[in-house]
Amino acid sequence: MKLPQKLRELRQAAGLTQAEVAGRLFVKRQTLSKWENGVNSPDLEMIVKLCDLYGASLDAVLRPDAELVAAIAGRQRSYRKLIVAVVALAGLLALLACLVQLRVALG
User: Fold this and answer.
1) Cα separation, 75 vs 85, whole angstroms
2) Distance of CA 46 to CAs 16, 22, 43, 100, 102, Å?
3) Which domain holds residue 80?
4) Is the pLDDT score of 89 beyond 90?
5) What sections of the chain are H helices per DSSP?
6) Are residues 47 and 5 in the same domain?
7) Is there a single domain that holds both residue 19 and residue 59?
8) 37 with 53, same domain?
9) pTM, entire model
10) In the chain, % of residues over pLDDT 90
11) Minimal CA–CA distance to 49: which of 61, 39, 38, 67?
C-alpha cells in the first residue's frame, strides 16, 4: 500500500478529520489533503509525527512504500549538497572580505 492511502486509512481508523489532524500538526488542512491524495509527501519529521499521532510504527507505515523511502533519501542528499554549497559560499565571502581589508590596510 502506498503512503497516501496508508495515511488516509490511519486517520480514519483514529476517527479524526483532516482538519483535526492538521490542527494538531500545525499544518493547513489542504497540506494534509495533498499528502493523502499523493500530490505531495510529508518530510520524514512529519511522517514520524503522524505515526505518533496515529499510534503506528514508522516501519509499518513506510516499509510498504519503497518508492517513497527512496524519494526521502534523495531529498536528504539534495539538502546536504545545498548545505555544502552554502558553507563554501560563506567561506569565499569571508576570504573576499579579508582581501578587501588587506588591500585597504596596505593602501
Assistant:
1) 15
2) 17, 11, 5, 45, 48
3) 69-107
4) no
5) 3-13, 18-25, 29-36, 44-54, 58-62, 66-106
6) yes
7) yes
8) yes
9) 0.60
10) 47
11) 61
